[in-house]
Specification:
Rossmann fold; alpha/beta; six-stranded parallel β-sheet
């Protein structure tokens, strides 16, 4: 069993200060990757092994069951048992179950896992027509209203002040009536929801001094992880647990506050020293997760934040050896980006990087579809975190059913793009993006992706009609294999919080997506900055950022995210505000970031050079005669099928075939752009072309 002094040996100076500050209020400002969990678990262990704490008198709360389990595991490894490490909801539920028979009598009402059925029933009682997306948005409003300690009557004014928009397209007054109806339906069912657990326990502690005394006798020392994410309701419960005591240690990072829309507020963390003037404040700045290059990038992003957003900011100091420089790449459109990212991942995996140590992170779940397709074509397994696969989403499935029906009567008198848009309009799509956030926006993004795909098909296949578009959708859906556990992670930036990978691709970093188009106020834009910061700091060794000039089939009207101005190669580091802010705006209006030769890294100066990815002075990395033979074969196949050559294989795929010279189907399957369908259709003929050139020397 370890001694108290041995526990301290594993800590750096700042972590040791946290561990040895065992009493009184303590505020730990812990940057990403700085070992906050190590610091607080060693603090508890040191106090317990020193005899200062009884482990059973400690309550450590965090926000995910995964984090709570990790905390318990580390404490066990340190030889300390009996500490209660739980989420806010789990801790409150345990107390509520214990005290309910004494305070109320009988058993605790049934706890519902999801609000959707009750929200849907409440909407039905009000004769509101809502779909699944609307129900999800309204459930989010129920949660926000409760964690903000609002009543239904106070909701409209508070929602307008907070800029909540029109969830599910409903006026705030209508939402307020739904909140009341929701509570009535829930009561009729004899049920409570997760927010009720916190509300009920807070109410009991406020009204029953005997219960409050019992809880405070049991728990004398409190630790709160991820304190930047507490809501008003959670802070109220914490205050009631403390009951005037100041024996609390809070840990957080204001630069990682990304859940304001759900009621989280960093203000409690920022104001902790004001609330407790005698508090010990410790900054953890040594980043053990990421390379100096990744840390520099993350710091640069926050350097450009307004001064009001940098209070209590942690400037990270890298501790790991140097790694690759971050990369910022411009692509023509979303499909180019997806194919290039998948090809890069294929090479990383082939070189030995486990697929499970790679992530593609994006702003909205609707951005996943081209990456799902590209990874499937590249033969790389993937898994989706925090969202459904694109073709599994209800709005997409419903739209495809309607498109199939419309295809039977398509007489070709109307352009494909307009025909598809007319069908999508019947399921709620419009040319203007909704101002609402959450499910409404995600639903629109999914349908808008279908509209964009129709434009792409029309551009590449003049005269294409709705049946052709349906065939394209079927082929894309077929190529999306079920996710594997050992695969590349596809996740939204929100879903990536708390996770880390060796390599992180941050994609779609164009204005309107990062920051998102409905982030209009300074506070909303700064939350987007923090979201990108979270994405960057997920990477241990390498981070690759990219943006696109256009959506598929669209004109190149997009601009790179304003946040990239401080991150691009050679960008000047200036203090926030004043000339620096003006400089950032000026660079945003300037030329696009250059594309470079993949052989010598020189800037590509012509369209022809950019198409092949190398400058004219560098030789190709493949046998040009073989490449031309593959092009001739592709032209013949395309002519026979009466489709553009691109539909068979892109030039990029043919270049990859010519470079790698696969000798069997398995080798072909590993090449980006060759999915299951194309492998079945063309493998034998491609291998025959390769075989006929096998005797000729390569480059």
């Amino acid at each position: 069993m370890r001694t108290a002094d041995e526990v301290l040996e594993a800590l750096d100076p700042e972590q040791r200060q946290v561990a040895t500050s065992m009493s009184g209020p303590v505020c730990v400002l812990a940057g990403a990757g700085t070992g906050k969990t190590r610091a607080i678990t060693h603090r508890i262990a040191y106090a317990a092994l020193s005899g200062v704490y009884n482990p059973t008198s400690v309550l450590a709360v965090t926000f995910t069951a995964r984090a709570a389990a990790q905390m318990r595991g580390r404490l066990r490894d340190l030889g300390v048992s009996g500490v209660q490490a739980r989420t806010f909801h789990a801790a409150a539920l345990r107390q509520l179950q214990y005290f309910w028979p004494r305070v109320v009598g009988g058993s605790l009402p049934h706890l519902v896992d999801v609000k959707a059925p009750i929200v849907a029933q409440a909407a039905s009682h009000m004769r509101l027509k809502v779909d699944r997306a609307a129900v999800r948005d309204l459930a989010a409003e129920v949660e926000w209203n409760k964690v903000s300690l609002l009543t239904p009557e106070g909701y409209p004014a508070a929602a307008r002040r907070a800029g909540r928009g029109a969830p599910a397209g409903l006026a705030p007054e209508t939402v307020a009536r739904l909140l009341t109806t929701y509570e009535e339906v829930k009561t009729d069912r004899g049920a409570i929801d997760f927010e009720d657990v916190l509300l009920l326990m807070a109410g009991i502690l406020s009204e029953r001094p005997d219960v409050a005394d019992a809880v405070r006798r049991q728990y004398r020392h409190f630790v709160v992880d991820e304190y930047q994410d507490v809501s008003r309701l959670q802070q109220k419960l914490l205050d009631l647990w403390l009951g005037g005591s100041d024996d609390v240690c809070v840990v957080g990072d204001a630069s990682q506050t990304i859940y304001s829309f759900a009621g989280a507020s960093p203000q409690y963390l920022l104001d902790f020293p004001k609330r407790y003037p005698n508090a010990t404040v410790v900054k953890l700045v040594r980043d053990y997760r990421s390379t100096p290059q990744v840390v520099k990038l993350a710091n640069a992003l926050l350097d450009r934040a307004p001064s009001t957003a940098t209070r209590a900011r942690v400037e990270l100091v890298a501790q790991r050896p140097a790694g690759p420089e971050p990369e910022i790449t411009e692509y023509g459109d979303d499909l180019d980006e997806a194919v290039a990212v998948a090809a890069r991942i294929r090479r990383l995996v082939d070189a030995g990087t486990p697929a499970s140590e790679i992530a593609i992170l994006y702003r909205t779940n609707a951005q996943s579809e081209p990456f799902e397709q590209a990874l499937a074509d590249a033969g790389v397994g993937y898994l989706l975190r925090g969202g459904e696969r694109f073709f599994a989403r209800k709005e997409v499935r419903d739209a495809i059913v309607l498109l199939r029906g419309a295809a039977r009567s398509d007489d070709g008198t109307q352009l494909l793009g307009q025909t598809v848009r007319d069908v999508l309009a019947s399921v709620g799509w419009s040319s203007q993006a909704p101002t609402a956030t959450g499910a409404v926006r995600e639903r629109w993004e999914s349908l808008n992706a279908l509209a964009g795909l129709a434009d792409q098909v029309a551009a590449n296949r003049p005269g294409a009609r709705l049946p052709d578009f349906i065939a394209e959708l079927d082929e894309r859906a077929e190529a999306q294999h079920a996710p594997t556990v050992d695969g590349v992670t596809l996740a939204s930036l929100h879903a990536a919080k708390g996770l880390e990978w060796d390599v992180v691709f941050l994609v779609g970093l164009s204005e309107g997506l990062m920051p998102i188009s409905f982030a209009e106020s300074v506070d909303e834009v700064e939350e987007e900055r923090r979201l990108l910061y979270v994405g960057i700091t997920r990477a241990r060794e390498r981070v690759l950022l990219s943006w696109t000039r256009a959506r598929p089939g669209g004109r190149g009207g997009r601009r790179p995210s304003r946040f990239l101005a401080a991150l691009g190669p050679g960008a000047a580091r200036q203090p926030a505000g004043g000339a620096a802010a003006a400089g950032e705006g000026k660079r945003r209006k300037g030329a696009a970031l250059p594309r470079r030769c993949r052989v010598c890294s020189a800037v590509l100066s012509s369209g022809a050079e950019r198409k092949v990815g190398r400058c004219s002075s560098c030789p190709p990395a493949y046998d040009e005669r073989l490449f031309e033979a593959l092009r001739e074969w592709r032209s013949r196949i395309a002519a026979e099928a009466k489709v553009p050559a691109y539909v068979v294989f892109t030039d990029a795929t043919l270049v990859a075939v010519a470079e790698s010279r696969p000798t069997d189907r398995a080798g072909l399957a590993r090449i980006p752009g060759i999915g299951k369908t194309k492998l079945e259709r063309y493998a034998e003929e491609v291998l025959q072309v390769l075989h006929s050139h096998a005797a000729q020397p390569g480059p």
